[in-house]
Structures are given as C-alpha cells and as structure tokens.
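User: Okay, second chain of the day. Same drill as before: sequence in, structure tokens out.
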Amino acid sequence: MNIVLNGGQGKMGRTIIELCKKKHSDINFFVVDREKTDESYNLSELEDKNIDGIIDFSSPSGTLQIIEFALKINRPILIGTTGISENDFKKIELASQKIPVFYSPNMSIGVNICFHIADILSKKLDCDIHIHETHHKAKKDIPSGTALRFKSIMEKNGKKVLITSSRIGDITGEHQLDFAMDGEKITLQHVAYRREIFASGAVTAFIWLCKKQAGLYNFDDMF
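Assistant: Same drill. Structure tokens below.
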C-alpha cells in the first residue's frame, strides 16, 4: 500500500512511520512537508505514482492543499490536523461529496469512546461542565481540537461548557471533564501516555476508510 503522508516530518508523521515499520511493513510512505528535503516529495512528483490514499497531519493551510491533491488523484484522505476553522471545514465537507474523507481532531480510540460518554452524560444530567486540557508546550492551537470537539458535542445537548488550557513540559495529552451537580460531581478523564496511540488509531481508521465510498466519516462510523 502506497500512502502520501502530509506533514510526514512532524512529530505525528514520524511516529506513524515508526509504527508502520514495526506493525505494517506492507505500507510504503511518500513523505510531503512544508520544507522539501532529500527524504520528501513535492506533490507534483507524486501525480504519476500509484497512490492508494493520503494521511494528513500538517497545518490548516497544508490540509487545504492536500485535499485538492486528493481530489485530483481521486483517492481517500484521512485528516488528523487540528486548528481547522469552520470555513475550512466546509471545504472538507465539499471534498467528501467526491472522495472518502475521514476527519477526527483526535485519533485515539479511547478519546473517541469518551466523546460518546460525554454525549450521554450531557444529555442526562442537569450540571455545570468544565473541561481542562493539558498538552506539551510546543502545541500551537489553544484550546485543543479535542477539547473543542467535546464542547461541540455537549453544546448540542443544550449545555454551557467552559474550557481552560495548559501548555507545559512534554505532556502528550490530558483531557478532564467535570460534570458538577448539586452535592456531587462526575469526572471523565483521558490521559495519553504515548503518541503511538494516535498513530495506531490513524492507521486503523485509514485502512477502514479505503473500503468506503465518497462521504465524510469519523470514529462513530467506524465503531
């Protein structure tokens, strides 16, 4: 299987490559990134290659560029890039009318189960909700895409949600949701200890996506 890995020289890109060396030796990557190196490609060099699909962990501008490439070669794309605006997401939705697109701000299987639990709790409880998310100090988007996804899910259930953020050390990712009621509180927490969990979820979702028709998919569909 030949995959274009957009943002392949970033932290997630390198983690995906290392994971596949151990567990998916049949996958070959064509790395694309903002800065061209001896180990990466320009998109124009890949138009005549036998590409099975695209995995994107880049930047919002990089995502828009690679979507156009995916449409040009008519191949599925998995998008794990965060910080995408509502306007740019509309472009992702338009692309999904022509090709299979998998989008999730967090590729952890555990976090996506927590999305489901947060949906249930916010529907059932009369409560105040606070999200605190913590990531490594190099992470640029604040709040995280995962925290915003939690917020969106629970706001659709009529709840007001407060988010606070910390950027410290080399923490991979922590999300804590507090559901405060009269006299009691429920806490839902997810802690990511290793970046490999996101890489594993992304590769699993991509393999699943390759069997689908045009459409916009997420982990709810895969589950």
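The radius of gyration is 18 Å.

User: Thanks, on to the next one.
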